[in-house]
Specification:
Blueprint: H1 2-18, H2 30-54, H3 78-103, H4 110-126, H5 142-176
Length: about 180
């Protein structure tokens, strides 16, 4: 009798473990989270940059990214801005992967700030010849320079904090197992 009770209890435990609600969820790989962080960061910060452009804090619109490749006036309209948000989101994946490769173990705000400033310098100095409508930095308005540097710093901090948090969480979960 006791053996039957034990067998029934074993069957119930096995059935309970097979239920979907009782199965342990596999965590998303950290690289997938980095890709998501990149896309979300790129779209979010380019939309905020468009708001800054709309309110004349900067003379540069996110649609600047389309200038070398797209022909026509459509790129300066609503559809051009929406497409530029998506393009910047996709380019931001590369930026997030770069941060992950170089600085994933760095904690705090400073790695993100430095990363954002270096990214700004790269875009406005090294990539300047690619964008025909992008003036040299010394020809840009002071508001544009300050606003864009601030956006790049905030973007760098967003990418940096998000990635370092995910890496730290994955390490913590592995240690707990």
């Amino acid at each position: 009798m006791a053996q039957q009770e034990t067998q029934k209890q074993d069957v119930r435990i096995e059935q309970n473990q097979q239920l979907e609600q009782n199965q342990k969820e596999q965590p998303m790989p950290v690289i997938a989270k980095v890709l998501i962080i990149g896309v979300v960061g790129g779209i979010f910060w380019s939309m905020l940059a468009y708001c800054a452009y709309f309110f004349h804090f900067t003379e540069l619109s996110p649609s600047l990214v389309l200038q070398p490749w797209a022909i026509g006036e459509w790129k300066d309209g609503a559809i051009g801005n929406i497409i530029s948000f998506l393009v910047i989101g996709l380019l931001s994946i590369l930026v997030a992967l770069l941060y992950y490769a170089l600085l994933k173990k760095r904690q705090g705000i400073w790695p993100g700030i430095i990363f954002g400033v270096i990214l700004w310098l790269f875009v406005f100095y090294a990539l300047n010849p690619i964008f025909p409508q992008l003036k040299a930095v010394k020809e840009l308005e002071r508001n544009t320079i300050i606003t864009t540097i601030c956006f790049y710093i905030l973007y760098g901090v967003f990418i940096g904090y998000s990635i370092s948090f995910e890496v730290t969480e994955m390490r913590r979960q592995k240690q707990a197992e």
